[in-house]
Amino acid sequence: MTAHTPEVPLHIALGLNDVELDAIREKLGREPNGLELAMFSVMWSEHCSYKSSRPLLRTLPTKGRDVVAGVGEQAGVIAIGDGLAVAFKIESHNHPSAVEPYQGAATGVGGILRDIFAMGARPIAVLDALRFGDPSDARTRHLVDGVVRGVGGYGNCVGVPTVGGELVFDPSYQGNPLVNVMAIGLLEEGMLTHASGDGPGNLVVLYGSATGRDGIGGASVLASATFGDQDPSKRPSVQVGDPFAEKLLIEATLELIARKLVVSIQDLGAAGITCATCETADRGGTGMLVDLDAIPRREPGLEPFEVMISESQERMVAIVEPVQWEAVREVCRRWELPVAIIGRVTAEPDVVVLTTPDGSGALDAAGRPVVGAVELARIPAPALASEAIIFNRESRPPARRRPAPAPGSAAPLVDALPLRGQDPAAVLAALLGSPNLSSRRPVFEQYDHNVQANTVEGPGRGAAVLRIKGTKKALVATTDGNASVSQADPWLGAALSVAEASRNVSITGARPLGVTNCLNYGDPTRPEAFWALAEGVRGLADACVALGLPVTGGNVSLYNEAPGSAIAPTPEIGIVGLLDDVSTRVGPAFRADGNTVMLVGLPGGGLAGSEYARLAGAALEDGPPAIDLELEARLQAFVREAIARGLVESCQDVSGGGLAVAIAEMCIWGGRGAQLRLGVGDSPAVALFGESPSRLVCEVVPRHVPAFGLLALHHGIHTDALGTTGGPRLVIELTGEGATGAAEERGSRIADALEAVVDDLRHVWEHGLPRALGWEGDDDSDGAALPGLEVAG
């Protein structure tokens, strides 16, 4: 918020523009007062209203056979059989984390957990998708340290395991880090609770922590405007979390729901009491009288607007029938949570804020305004929520600079490394030790990923797997976002993000259930930035339709820009899948010597957007690899069926770092090598390190190879046997494809073989991240140098 001075009108100071002020006047039929403007400012913020993205989001596929709660709810919920359902959602806390990394990340975890248990689900897991700038930069290191401690500090204390996520470094995040957090919960379908203010005469009950000045206009304002990263005026807007209060809130809320003591529940996040009351009323087609005097406060002297828009954490609003009030109060007091009746549901669809001169309470026992009550604000609930202003933004693709050399100049050499004389093993070592591909253990070992004793597969090795106690079933969850390709082609980047997330679930044998998304983009008032958002949503929709995945909810985070820079378009995708029998789960580690290594799918051209290109640079006219969504759907159906038939011992998808990195990871995790021969077309670099989608590496017992191949043929999927597992080394010999000439020359080696000791690769992989972040001393012996290759800075 900008300081209100005689030169700066109040609505401008609150972040509203003149067009929005005129729209507010029209909806009210009069001039708004200061409190009403404050309420509109937070509810019409980009974070709360989706005023730029709502028309785009309506194009997403949201229907599904098992979807029991979807878009518009606090979290998506999908039935998984046996009377159970899974709730999941991903949200951002980018801007608060840029200002105060520990509290920004911690309250991001707390907020997404409240969305889950407000639906009646017990939170069982958190995944964190984190993106930062240059890891050698002092500020980046400060942000990484604070955010990681914030995620771990809150999740560990509240007793919810952090089981997966991402950690990505890219220069575009230097001024604007991304902190996206996904939470998952489990519930009995009968426990499902909606946030709807039904029943005129019902009580509006606030319980949890008291209200303070922390978080005044926090997420709602910080996430709705660009700002300088060192702006001290933003710091008071960051919320302060208390995970121990959240733990009490979880238990009290689930007890209230289980005992059917509440009509509905909504958490207080962005925009605080204003949001919780107006959204709940709007969904129920009702209104509310809000008694400002009755709201518990942790400090004196709060102004009415501060009380109404404070984003103090660990608070919930419940709609309660009057006959249940005493039971509700008993539950909250037993869990040592402040609780108060702060209003009544009304038939008239206005949110009315009342007070008294002496602060003694504006409503009587029957819920009627007392004599002398003063009306501070009166706003139709739909005007703040479902009928909030929408902007039809201008969309324009960015001007493309001609990548080819000027006429008459020499054409640059196309990068086709590694060639003869350059060791492809050194390239692989450099990739495995790079900030984006090395082991994340130094980060995830700060998280408790085993609390609750449901974790079958935790962070560090693909999708997380969580058993469902009392059944054979398990949930599989992952997050993925391809920002590097999105920077060149936002449609393709979003489609690739959905495909990879779904693929990572499918290669465990699980059936992907649905998608939650966090769309991180720039300033929507810039036509080029809005075009990227529109293309990203189109790619998300096309991929979800092709893969049969409903979008159950999510979050849009815009204005991710700092002065002079904007983030790469980042569509962060979260997917949850279901394993009917956890004992059939397939992991990514080679399991035994002598098994056949099968490559599933065909490579595509293009190194742009790859980790290899980040390290070595790419040819000027190179582009990212394309995706065939119909082929991707067939590939995933094939691998799920192959796993169900017991034909697959281990499986890994080809993604970051390409085929060589995928195989190296399987070797590292399995503690064994492999002897392989790989056919190469035009470029060894593309064959080894290209990241074209719709490819898998599967370990298959030799006797199952024929059945594996026949099943692939049935699905229209290409397979190649590369070699066998075993030994202490990874050896990949490169051979020519389609060579002509003398028979003895066909299939001959066309470049130096990739040969490395698996233990050496493990060492490089394990030390890459701490070295990049300065958590250990430099050691040039780790193989990060690339002979003959100048690493791009």
Descriptive report:
- With 793 residues, the protein is of the alpha+beta class.
- The C terminus is likely disordered.
- It has a 7-stranded mixed β-sheet with strand order 8-10-7-11-9-12-13. Strands 23-25-22-26-24-27-28 form a 7-stranded mixed β-sheet. A 6-stranded mixed β-sheet has the order 1-2-3-6-4-5.
- Among the domains are: 186 residues, Alpha-Beta Complex (Phosphoribosyl-aminoimidazole Synthetase, Chain A, domain 2); 241 residues, Phosphoribosyl-aminoimidazole Synthetase, Chain A, domain 2, CATH 3.90.650.10.
- The chain is built from 25 helices and 28 strands.
- It is elongated.
- Helix 7 packs parallel to helix 10, helix 15 crosses helix 25 and helix 18 packs parallel to helix 21.
CATH topology of the domain at 416-449 and 587-793: Phosphoribosyl-aminoimidazole Synthetase, Chain A, domain 2
* CATH homologous group name of the domain at 416-449 and 587-793: PurM-like C-terminal domain
How is the largest sheet built, in terms of strand order?
8-10-7-11-9-12-13
CATH level-1 class of the domain at 416-449 and 587-793: Alpha Beta
Helical proportion? 25-40%
The number of helical runs is: 25
- Given as residue ranges, the uncertain stretches (5+ residues, pLDDT < 50) are 218-224, 227-236, 402-421, 738-748, 778-793
What is the radius of gyration computed over CA atoms, rounded to a whole number of angstroms? Answer: 28 Å
The rounded distance between the terminal residues' Cα atoms is 37 Å
Average pLDDT works out at 90
Please indicate the percent range of residues in DSSP E strands (runs of 2 or more).
Answer: 15-25%
Q: What would CATH call the architecture of the domain at 416-449 and 587-793?
A: Alpha-Beta Complex
Largest sheet descriptor: 7 strands, mixed
According to DSSP, the number of beta strands is 28
* Structural class label: alpha+beta
Q: What is the 3D shape?
A: elongated
